[in-house]
Amino acid sequence: MQSHSKPTIILVHGAWHNAIYWEEYFAPWLREQGYNVVCPDLPGHHTTAGTKRIPWYSINDYTDHVAKVVAQPKGPVVVVGHSMGGHVTQKIMEHRPANLVGAGLIASVPPKGVLGVVFTLLTKHPLKLLQATLTMNMYRLLDSTQLAKELLYTPSIKEPDLNKYYQWIQNESFRAFLDMMLLNLPNPARVDPALPKWIVGAEQDLLFPPKTVQQTAAAYGVTATIYKDMAHSSPVLEEGWQTVAKDLHDWITTL
Which of 49, 26, 50 is nearest to 38 (CA)? Predict the structure, then answer.
């Protein structure tokens, strides 16, 4: 791919977060490679949100927002989503925008939804799950650095990094959670089978473990890459993120 034809890369963040974590390492590195990189905040997500309740936004609300971002560039676009952002990316794939030339999923919600995550939380933190469900307050699931470390990062994450990244944790829409669990699941059958797809996961991911990522990749007719010694958010924020970013760059050059 010639430099003048490089697509715009749109990076879609996951639940409990906003676009700030892309801007820590991933987006600046891709810009250094000559890409125009856009990191939208999903509706209700911004740097000062904290524990504040997010309105009853749905996955469709998030998808519609990203679809408008996808429509803005005049040239080709690649959309890459992490976690819940992967769910939104799959919905964008279903819409088949004319300028979408590739889609990437990093530790993404799978087509079967987040019931596996619910089971994990039910096993490890049943009281937290009960509190979050009864109060419809998703912040309850990540209301301490210890919970964030267990569910999102590797045991070896440096304490200053953990504390920094935890400041970016915020609430999440309970409606979006219901959509990801049952109400609005991705449908690979609606996606153009010819659309290039890049699907990766993390060896230590408790939310979407390697088997789940491999099943997602199989549903889209591709092979997943699983990164060793990484957890759910590691591909974006922890040691080794450069390898993930470079692999994405190398894949894009094949489009």
Answer: 26
Residue with tokens 């010819």: 194
Map tokens 């892309």 to a residue: 22
Cα(130)–Cα(37) distance, integer angstroms: 39
The 77-82 sheet, strands edge to edge: 37-38, 8-12, 77-82, 100-106, 197-202, 225-227
Tens of pLDDT along 172-228? Answer: 999 999 999 999 999 999 999 999 999 999 999 999 999 999 999 999 999 999 999
Q: What average pLDDT does the structure give for the chain?
A: 96
3-state secondary structure (DSSP) of residue 70: helix
pLDDT at 4 over 60: no
The pTM assigned to this predicted structure is 0.96
If DSSP codes are grouped into helix, strand and coil, which group holds residue 196? coil
109, 207 in Cβ contact below 8 A? no
Tell me the domains of the chain and their CATH numbers: 3-252 (3.40.50.1820)
d(CA 73, CA 69): 8
The first and second tokens of residue 10, run together, are: 């749109």
Burial class (CB in 10 A: 0-12, 13-18, 19+), 193: exposed
Task: Identify the bridge partners of residue 89 per DSSP, sorted by sequence position.
Answer: none
Residue 78 and residue 11: Cα distance in Å, rounded?
9
Helix (H, G, I), strand (E, B) or coil at 198: strand
